[in-house]
Amino acid sequence: MVKKKKGVSANYEYFVKTDTSGYGGEWIAIAKDKVVAHGKDAQKVYKSAIKKIGGTDVSLAKVPEAQMMVL
Q: What is the residue extent of each domain of the chain?
C-alpha cells in the first residue's frame, strides 16, 4: 500500500505536476491538492488561503511570467 503524502510535500508535488501557467507572475497558495488563493502580494495570498482553509498546511509559490527553459 502506498501512503499518500500530506502537508508541504504533497503541496510541492502538486505544484510540480500542475500547469500553473494561468497564474503567470503571481503568487499561488496551495493546500489540499489545489490552488486556494492567488495574487501579486505574497502576504495577502497567504492570509487569504489561511482564512479559506483554516489551519491546514499552506505552501506559497511564485509562478514565473513565462516558461523557463532548462538546458
A: 7-62
Length of the chain: 71
Helix (H, G, I), strand (E, B) or coil at 11: helix
Amino acid (one-letter) located at 31: A
Q: Cell numbers of 58, please? A: 499552506
Q: CA 15, 8, 17: angle at the middle one, nearest 5?
A: 20
Q: Are 63 and 25 in contact (CB under 8 A)?
A: yes
* Edge-to-edge order in the sheet of strand 34-39: 34-39, 27-31, 59-62
Give 21-34 pLDDT, tens digit per residue. 999 999 999 998 99
Read off the pTM: 0.80
